[in-house]
Amino acid sequence: MSQDIPDKRDYYRINDRVLLEFKIIDPNLREEGADFPISVSPEFHLLNELHHIDSESIGLLHAIAEKDRNIATYVSAINHKIELLASVIAGSSEDLDEVRPQDATLGEGGLSFNHKEPVELESILAIKLTLLPSYAGLLLYGRVVNCNEHIKGDYLLNIEFENITDNNRQLIARHVLHYQAKARRAAGLNQE
Question: What is the C-alpha separation between 101 and 133, in angstroms, rounded?
């Protein structure tokens, strides 16, 4: 069930733990304005909007920092308070009770993860992805480009994102950069 495709490593990838739900859909369900085919809680929408606002305003915070560091520090502190409240809200969401963290390889272009059953190549998936520990939520569409039986009896699914918005791509890119920075700091501490 493998498809020979060139390896396009245009984006950095990380091995991470994420909350993931997906559903195979008819490609026509991706039309703009159509409801997302996986249920989404109000908390998920709230966190999603908070992260998009954060993404859109990061340039403004840098501009403020250039003019007045004290104001930038204060705005960052308020932003941190909001992130803490959002994490508490996310932690109490009913959505998270049903989904367990799982290993995945994630990049701006797609993700791969193990699944109990094979999924047909070229299938279109609706994907509800929550990044940890920020609980940033993304609603994405992807196409199955590879499905191989794994050693453990599971199937390794390789998904390529389709029609991903710039906001979602930036959110994934920031998550990847934060993850890599954290890994470098941890490696530096272990070498001391």
Answer: 11
